[in-house]
């Protein structure tokens, strides 16, 4: 009878090893967090992410209930399913947090972002800039003889695509608001 020799650093793949061939992949999730609108709340939420090494791809905050003094924080983050569950559980334990919703899991949602692009160029480049603006339904919000400022509203992917196309034409500066998102249907978050 021959013995099975396993080299150091190698992994054994058994029919009973349920983890064999499984790698937890990072997923992108959009979280809506309803919090008290008071000093220090945003710092506590951000501290949770930075203290544990979680990444924030996008962050928007605004008061959504003036009478109840509540704000909505929309956070786009990435992580394995286990990390996302940890983030949601830890957010829920912060005292000024009232609700945590994972819009990615809860069902269909609508995400939009606003971006401003300053694109500098002359001659044929200006014509191409205006053509691209028309295709992307971008609004010209400022114009000089040397540059345009375009306003683009859409999904983060649309914003990225517009940036990629105007970069060679002379993209000088860009500002993005971050994602605003709502779940579809009649249910309110």
UniProtKB/TrEMBL annotation:
Biological pathway: Amino-acid biosynthesis; L-isoleucine biosynthesis; L-isoleucine from 2-oxobutanoate: step 1/4; Amino-acid biosynthesis; L-valine biosynthesis; L-valine from pyruvate: step 1/4
Keyword entries, A-Z: Amino-acid biosynthesis, Branched-chain amino acid biosynthesis, Transferase
EC number(s) stated in the UniProt entry for this protein: 2.2.1.6
Family affiliation: Belongs to the acetolactate synthase small subunit family.
Organism, as annotated: Hasllibacter halocynthiae
Subunit field text: Dimer of large and small chains.
Gene Ontology BP annotations: isoleucine biosynthetic process; L-valine biosynthetic process
Record's protein name: Acetolactate synthase small subunit
Top-level taxon in the UniProt lineage: Bacteria
């Amino acid at each position: 009878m021959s013995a099975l020799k396993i080299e150091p650093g190698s992994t054994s793949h058994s029919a009973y090893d349920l983890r064999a061939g499984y790698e937890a992949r990072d997923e992108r999730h959009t979280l809506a967090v309803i919090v008290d609108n008071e000093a220090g709340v945003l710092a506590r939420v951000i501290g949770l992410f930075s203290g544990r090494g979680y990444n924030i791809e996008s962050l928007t905050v605004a008061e959504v209930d003036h009478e109840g003094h509540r704000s909505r924080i929309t956070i786009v983050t990435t992580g394995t399913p286990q990390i996302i569950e940890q983030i949601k559980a830890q957010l829920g334990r912060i005292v000024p947090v009232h609700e945590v919703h994972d819009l990615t899991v809860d069902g269909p949602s609508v995400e939009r972002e606003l971006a401003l692009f300053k694109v500098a160029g002359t001659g044929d480049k200006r014509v191409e800039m205006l053509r691209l603006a028309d295709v992307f339904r971008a609004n010209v919000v400022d114009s000089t003889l040397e540059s345009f400022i375009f306003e683009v509203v859409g999904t983060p992917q649309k914003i990225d695509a517009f940036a990629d196309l105007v970069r060679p034409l002379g993209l000088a500066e860009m500002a993005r608001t971050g994602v605003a998102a709502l779940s579809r249907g009649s249910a309110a978050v």
